[in-house]
Fold this sequence. Notes:
165 residues, mainly alpha, two-stranded antiparallel sheet, elongated
Amino acid sequence: MSFNYASEKRKxxxxxxxxxxxxxxxxxxxxxxxxxxxxxxxxxxxxxTYGIHNTYFSTVMPDGEEVADDRSSxxxxxxxxxxVPAEESDPDRRYGWIDxxxxxxxxxxxxxxxxxxxxxxxxxxxxxxxxxxxxxxxxSTHQNISKKIRxxxxxxxxxxxxVAD
Length: 165
C-alpha cells in the first residue's frame, strides 16, 4: 500500500495540535515548540520519501501465509534475464551474476560498465540494499545515489527498447 499523504498529514497535524496544547501547559516557549514541530515535519517528510521509494511486496503462499519479498522491484523486473537465480552464482566473484545473464549483448554492456556502476548495481539489485543504505556505505548523499541509479536504469531501459524494436 502506498503512502497516503493527505491522510497521514491530517493525523500528523491532529497529533501536533494536541502536543502544542500539552507543551504550552507545561510552560514551554513558543520558539521551542516551533523548533520541535519543524524537526517532526522533517522526519515526516523523510518517512514519506522513504515510503515512496522503498515499497516492499509480499507474496501469499498456497497455505494462506503471507511472505514478505524484500527484493527490489528493479531486481524483480530483470531477474528473468538470468539463466540461473543470482543467488546461485559463484560467491567468490563479486560480479559473477553478470556472467549468468543469457543475453550476450546485455552481458557485454554490463561487463564494460565502470567498476563503480557494477558495484552500485550489485548493491541495489542483487543484494537488495536501499538507496539510503548505499548512500551511507559510500559516504554519499541519497540524491547522488538516486541519480546514479536512475542513469543505470535508463541504460537498461534503452537496451530493453532496442531489443523490443
